[in-house]
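Moderator note: this is an archived Q&A kept for reference. The question asked for a predicted structure of one protein chain; the sequence and the answer are reproduced below.
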Amino acid sequence: MKVDPFRPVPEQEVTQLLAEIHKQPELFEQLLPLVYDDMKRIGRAQRQRLGSSATLRTTALVHEAFLKMQKSAGGEIENRLHFQRLVARVMRQLIVDYARKQLAEKRGGDQIRETFEEAEYSLEAEDLVRVMAVDAALQRMATDDRRMTEALVAQLYAGFTVEEIGEMFGLSSRTVIRDLRRARAWLTIELAEFDPG
């Protein structure tokens, strides 16, 4: 499938290729040109959520996420929104793994093999601790209400709109708004005592 970089990619082309990838995982590389802009948008949203001192390069994050997803390309991905949801989850995992590794190194832990070049990152210790605190809070939230947590993750980490989240989960905008309000309130309470020190 040849991709014209100046033409928006129709949803059905992505969905068709995703169906083919389920049967032939080696076709996964053909997906990147079709979803690259989506992944860049999600990557930028992830970076913005880390705060102003975080300078993770979006391109590095996108490529690492794509490679990680390629390893499990045989799994069924229903459509572009489902793919975007998975990308957001993978990017969040990469950022949390990086923060965990950096904190371990700062505390004198074992040296862990670099996935990204060090120059790709510039995270302050406070940002690393915040990433870990938010992730731990989201994990606790997920044990109480998985849908609410996934809706918040989709908005916080991938920059999805209420309408996109509704389409992703098959919910009305009103339900998504209610879930997001509850999730934000829950997260605010969980992080009320957050102290990066």
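Archived answer notes: The chain has eight helices and no strands.
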